[in-house]
Amino acid sequence: AAEDISLRAAQALQRPDAMRSQYDIIVPVDALVKTLENRADPLRIEALKALGHAAMAKNGDAVRSRINAITDVYGAQDATLTPAVRAAFVGAIGHLNPTTDAAVGILEKALIHEDEGVRAAAHAAVGHAVAIKPELLSRFLVLQRLDVRAVGNGAAAPAPATPPAEPKP
Fold it and tell me: Residue 154, Cα to own-chain centre: how many angstroms?
């Protein structure tokens, strides 16, 4: 019952216009960050969406300052994350600050992840950076370009190797 209430609260926090809301949507940030550690995947996904949404608020600096807590949880759980939860983490990282060292490492791996949803979230996350150094942007763009050229993304599959012709007698 508590997780159901938490899920509904995380979903409700995503609804107000972050830039114009009269409500202080950054108040529950600590609770949302704690939710990421040991809760069910649907709750973690909604909590990550709520964190990303709260980071866009006028006073979103308080949320964006929690980027290290988010990347630490991601790093601790990296081996066990489902693609949906991984994509939600990547999306939240994009809204908070995709330029920290830990965030850059996560995004670089996500840009070449085998799951299309994770790659899409990483592409969007790169675009959410408030300010990004040209060198870092270049690194991300190279990975994005490699993804676009991957087989299945409009690129042709490599031609199968043809067996050598048999010599004629």
Answer: 23
